[in-house]
Amino acid sequence: MSQATAEGESAIAPASAIPSYLQADNLGPWGNYLQQVDRVIPHLGKLARWAETLKRPKRILIVDVPIHMDDGTVAHFEGYRVQHNVSRGPGKGGVRFHQDVTLSEVMALSAWMSVKNAAVNVPYGGAKGGIRVDPKKLSRGELERMTRRYTSEIGIIIGPNKDIPAPDVNTNEQIMAWMMDTYSMNTGSTATGVVTGKPVDLGGSLGRREATGRGVFTVGTEAARHIGLDIATARVAVQGFGNVGGVAGKLFSEAGARIIAVQDHGGTILCEAGLDVPALLQHVADTGSVAGFAGAEVLADEKFWEVDCDILIPAALEQQITTQNAGRIKARMIIEGANGPTTPAADDILQERNVLVLPDVIANAGGVTVSYFEWVQDFSSFFWDEDEINARLVKIMKMAFAGVWQVAQEKKVSLRTATFIVACQRILHTRELRGLYP
Ligand code: GLU
User: CA separation (Å) from 185 to 63, 202, 277, 373?
Assistant: First the structure.
């Protein structure tokens, strides 16, 4: 019940009060994102009057996903799709299946997509989805039913011109195929452009699977040049050896670097002489983890952060580099293949210690860049060859990185803040041009 004030009016919250689900608890990824936004606001000039836009997702959908399990029971999963911002175009961003998915995590991931898409200047807003589930515990049939029901539930807000999902942690080409099919069955026509990261035989793009790792390698190489770090002799440590870390590791090793340590959910391995990357990729494909790989020693998980390396690539989950380990990291350069792996407090420690951080919102933007190519190809039903795709990807990544590097130098800010400056200016400029409706 609202309290009556002395004037007899209801004491209702002012219209601009922050809803509880948007408040930073300074612990989760959303809190980290809000701190990153606060660091950019002083650099936004007149556009700062629109900055609150960045702190409020445009639309949040929470869905119940009930499915028949193979044993005859009915299980319910909680799913989300968050459209953070659509000022620059339709929402765009992946779908994650993971046992730790929460609404605030998906909100942060959707916001980082807005920033990322603007940073590389692809014509999208930001969105993200997820289901709290450990997909490894589902049979293939259960996984398909869950994916299809989730797609049906979010079908009211996604579409080729509205919001375009893609793969993320634990989702892949097959899951995108089921999503595309479900959406198409519901709308009555084959809509390849509703998701990206599809199988190539179903409107997918050549080069999409490797694109995030290739982007990590491209910006890493550019940055290395700026700081006089020779990739051909660099020692690299990678966390996560899947679609992002595995591909980046392969490209760095092909360029002469030694991949000396890899950590994933199964454990941590070390080989000072350099791991045999093709053999390790095969081992991960066969067993699901780097654990048990012959030709490497086992390292205690916590020791991973202290490995004596030149380049560290966190390519797994959020909040891995924190105040607990940032002071012990020996790398000269960190390339964020994952989304949100470094907390703002850890960022400060790293900057103080002169460790260069290539932030997620530019370093891992290669995936969504080739997603954009896929979407364009689907619309025109005209498909490009892989050389053209890779050449266009590298061009966009280099151009975006050069712009961000320049802003960082001019304003004497971190590359993260510089990327946020470039991206948030783009987002808020379109926000202002479009104006408020009504
Ligand atoms: N999930 C990827 C990311 O975090 C790709 C998103 C997309 O292609 O839409 O950037």
Answer: 20, 15, 41, 24
The answer, yes or no, to whether any atom of ligand 1 lies below 6 A from the CB of 364, is: yes
Asked if residue 399 is part of any domain, the answer here is no
Q: Identify whether 96 is part of a domain.
A: yes
Q: Are residues 17 and 36 in the same domain?
A: yes
pTM: 0.94
Measured distance CA(63)–CA(131) in Å, rounded: 9
Could you tell me what percent of the chain has a pLDDT over 90? 93
Out of 128, 137, 303, 330, the active site residue is 128
**Domain ends where: 304, 338, 363?**
363
In short, whether 171's Cβ falls inside 6 Å of ligand 1 is no
Give the Å distance between the CA of 128 and the centre of ligand 1.
8
Q: Among 363, 395, 417, which residue terminates a domain? A: 363
Quick check: CB of 95 below 6 Å from ligand 1? no
pLDDT at 8: 43
113 lies in the same domain as 215: no
- To the query of whether residue 303 is one of the catalytic residues in this protein, the response is no
Number of domains in the chain: 2
With the most atoms of ligand 1 within 8 angstroms of its CB, the residue from 180, 205, 212 to mutate is: 212
Q: Which atom of ligand 1 is nearest to the CA of 196?
A: 8
Q: For residue 28, what pLDDT is reported?
A: 87
Q: How many Å is the maximal CA-CA distance in the chain?
A: 78
pLDDT of residue 4: 41
Q: How far apart are CA 203 and CA 205, in angstroms?
A: 7
Choosing from 86, 318, 368 the residue with most ligand 1 atoms within 8 A of its CB, the one to mutate for a pocket test is 368
315 Cα–ligand 1 center, Å: 13
User: Would residue 393 count as lying in a domain?
Assistant: no
Residues 289 and 345 in one domain: yes
Q: Does the pLDDT value for residue 5 go beyond 90?
A: no
Judged against a pLDDT cut of 90, whether residue 187 lies above it is answered with yes
Contacts of 371 (CB under 8 A, 6+ apart): 92, 164, 166, 196, 197, 205, 208, 211
Higher pLDDT, 6 or 382: 382
Residue 25 belongs to some domain of the structure: yes
128-150 confidence digits (pLDDT tens): 999 999 999 999 999 999 999 99
Nearest residue to 120 via CA among 324, 368, 310, 342: 368
Give the residue numbers spanning the domain of 164: 2-201
Does residue 368 line the site of ligand 1, with CB under 6 A? Answer: yes
